[in-house]
Amino acid sequence: MKYQIIPVTPYQQNSTLLICEHTNTAAIVDPGGELNLILDQVQHHNVTLESILLTHGHLDHVGGVAALVKQLSLPVYGPHVEDAFWINALKEQAEMLNFPPSESFTPTRWFKDNDEINVGEELLQVIHTPGHTPGHVVFYSAADKLAIVGDVLFNGSIGRTDFPKGDYHTLIDSIKQKLWPLGKEIDFIPGHGPMSTFGEEMRSNPFVGEDGQEALPFCS
Ligand SMILES: [Zn+2]
Ligand SMILES: [Zn+2]
Q1: Is 101 exposed, middle or buried (CB count within 10 Å of its CB: 0-12, 13-18, 19+)?
Q2: Distance between Cα 15 and ligand 1 center (Å)
Q3: Is the pTM of this model over 0.85?
Q4: What whole-number distance in Å separates Cα of residue 14 and Cα of residue 110?
Q5: Mean pLDDT, residues 16-21
Q6: What is the whole-number distance in angstroms between the Cα of residue 87 and the centre of ligand 1?
């Protein structure tokens, strides 16, 4: 599976184009906005966009969904239904963050833990990873040893947990019990910033690494 990371919105959120090279079809993970940048890459890679995949309901990750659906009539998969309250509040999220107006939408399908979803002939596993938001999911390709983790884990940090229905210990459990067992060699694309591997974060991440104490994320 090929991928192209496309940072969008003032939050430089990593939208990721996942490409099945057998079928020349693709899915876009978290089209948060700036659809022109995303559609440029679709054209550049000469692929047909077949679906939208969502990690969680925050505006910088889903702000472009309604407009993209209107334009291309794509199915929307995810996140877990517990993030419905975030998606229903997109208008308020946009006003609060001074983003362009964004419409709510109803996903074609909500994910549950252990669901599977295809991108062309490529298979992704869906892992429910609450903590940053209650309905956050991670997409995992065993064949490519690649995970798209949204705002669960970053290179050197973890997601915020001070939002409604966020929970620090739940997030730590999601990382340690759902992500680490996938293996040290797994490359991951975070929702913001540069890529890393689970092994590197297991070792050096100040919040979930062996070297670090369990630091509280808001005391720096
Ligand atoms: Zn988020
Ligand atoms: Zn984010």
Answers
A1: exposed
A2: 13
A3: yes
A4: 21
A5: 98
A6: 12
